[in-house]
Amino acid sequence: MAVDEQDELSEATQREAELQRQIDDLQGQVTGLHRTWEETNPELSSEFQILKEKLNEHSKQLEQSAEKLSQLESENLTH
């Protein structure tokens, strides 16, 4: 494999890790906001729960994409 390809894979892996950290941070913020919101607006709690579930779905999809990227990286490194 050419050095350029290894650099690109390394950059992609670093970017993936940074995006995952950002998602984790956002999920923490969302959880904190939810607690505050639930205390002040209990009638909106169910709507928030729906949005939180959608966020979790998207996070799972991102994790699956990250796994696929890792598989592709492994395949590229062995060729």
UniProtKB/TrEMBL annotation:
Renumbered residue ranges of the record's region Disordered: 1-21, 60-79
Biased composition (Polar residues): 62-79
Superkingdom of origin: Eukaryota
Ranges of Acidic residues composition bias in the record: 1-10
The protein, known as: Uncharacterized protein
